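Give me the fold.
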Amino acid sequence: MLSAALELAATKPWAEVALSDIAEKAGASLFELRKEFTSKALIIAELMRAADEEVLRKAPKRSEGQAKRDLLFDVIMTRFDVLAPYKAALKSIHASSVADPSLAAPYLSSQHWMLEAAGIATDGVMGAARIAGLAVTYATVFGVWLGDEDPGAARTMATLDRRLRRGERAAAAAEELTLTLNRFATEGPRALRSLLFGRRKAHGADREGGAV
């Protein structure tokens, strides 16, 4: 079903592709298609999941001393290599699609797995921020990749490198802010109590001195 959907998307606007068209292309009935997909959004979600699996299977191993940003660069370029055979279909889908909230979860899941493949943790508040940051970066670079006809993908790689460097700086600043806030949350009350206690002792000493 997925292959049939992509073949149709490569030949006409995705918005004009009906589920019945996909079923017919796959040599199946609409009843059979319904068992797998109840909407075109679910077909796109399945493409994301299949791409995730292939990227994780092909993900390059981190070499000694390699920066995680560089490995993430390789992982994302691996994803574009995986998607390359379906580029015409993806152009159609990208041009025809409207924002669909149901695709948010699989899209963010893809960012999660690419970060993990690069050895970058995705748990906790900072992990969520990294996923969100990569989601924005990937969306921008994906658009560039769709229009990049250079076999060497020079424009795509330049944009990706620039965006990852910018994201790395932003992440470092966010981590520093988080550490500062955590430090204030844990040490702030103690410091405040110490300051107030010190003032009370000083005030008491002044009162005793005045009574002499």
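The chain has nine helices and no strands.
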